């Protein structure tokens, strides 16, 4: 497609966009009496309007039924989480029995490492990405310490080559082969939070397995944003948060994937709890743990229904639309944003360096942009002008044009505001 940096062209794209109507499904903050251009769905998604009804339903059931709501509400609480199995399985490419919801992201990654990080004297090393999200780094360090190893020895970071912003696939594969028989686990973020790079999860998973290691993925920035085929890729486990691209609300519940090949393996350890026990016998209060078959068997506590309600509203919205439609718009609107940035770059003295891969197969709904010659004052100008974006030191802005609620007109308007901020920076 040949793009144009005009309002008319942007409106034309919106008129052809089958997701354009879904903007009205979300609540936008207001700045200067006008809805914002929202680029931070990679940190916290906007609130769907339908969410309130789902939460109110739980509140009303609690008020009217109290404890009986566990069994007699319209969506009984004791099996509320089971409503996620089918829609979530489509989002991440899994069997319904391979997905569940529980806890929050880093908690779930810790719990999954109980099962899948089983170091021995000779096989104890973990391969991860350089500059992973800090929570992952802390998790790796604490897990390695817990097992009595030194992180400087046990943690192997895949590094970027000198002068490059992204990690090369061949370097990941070479490092896996190099570590070889010492490798216990590969655990990488499916999408790097800083650069927006999407890793080749299928190829890396296969390489990890050839080395005899388990392979898991932190899908915080991938779930609801990237085409995932976790079952077909033979991924061992994965976890993701729900509050970014899936718009479930701040700090909300996490999702988990555990490949069905592990469901019947009684030798794999797990931290057990009441809610992971045999559903049909749970209320018999038995002393011996008998796990639910499937990913639900990794649950520990009864679930926070008030947190799950917004998440259910979101996954049902995704199910209504379908990931293929979302991903098609994602690619087009991200390319249009890239074009707008390149056009504005020609009209100003500053220069923009997009550090997210240009290959559409290696990126999703995020462009990370180095603003050479610009500082924090430009970010402040954007925020005051109704563009909600994310600043990372020293001078990177992360822009996430989420397909469900950003428009092509938003991309055009952002370009005009960005240009005005740079041209008028003496007055900022």
TrEMBL record:
Pyridoxal 5'-phosphate binds at residues 105-106, 133-136, 218, 221, 243, 274, 302. Belongs to the kynureninase family. It comes from the Bacteria. This is Kynureninase. The keyword Hydrolase applies. Its EC number is 3.7.1.3. InterPro entries: Kynureninase, PyrdxlP-dep_Trfase, PyrdxlP-dep_Trfase_major, PyrdxlP-dep_Trfase_small. Pathway: Cofactor biosynthesis; NAD(+) biosynthesis; quinolinate from L-kynurenine: step 2/3; Amino-acid degradation; L-kynurenine degradation; L-alanine and anthranilate from L-kynurenine: step 1/1. Gene3D superfamilies: Aspartate Aminotransferase, domain 1, Type I PLP-dependent aspartate aminotransferase-like (Major domain). The keyword Hydrolase applies. GO terms for biological process: anthranilate metabolic process; L-kynurenine catabolic process; L-tryptophan catabolic process to kynurenine; NAD+ biosynthetic process; quinolinate biosynthetic process. One of its GO terms (molecular function) is kynureninase activity. The gene is kynU. NCBIfam families: kynureninase. Keywords: Hydrolase, Pyridine nucleotide biosynthesis, Pyridoxal phosphate. It catalyses: L-kynurenine + H2O = anthranilate + L-alanine + H(+); 3-hydroxy-L-kynurenine + H2O = 3-hydroxyanthranilate + L-alanine + H(+). Its cofactor is pyridoxal 5'-phosphate. GO terms for cellular component: cytoplasm. The modification N6-(pyridoxal phosphate)lysine is found at residue 244. Homodimer. Catalyzes the cleavage of L-kynurenine (L-Kyn) and L-3-hydroxykynurenine (L-3OHKyn) into anthranilic acid (AA) and 3-hydroxyanthranilic acid (3-OHAA), respectively.
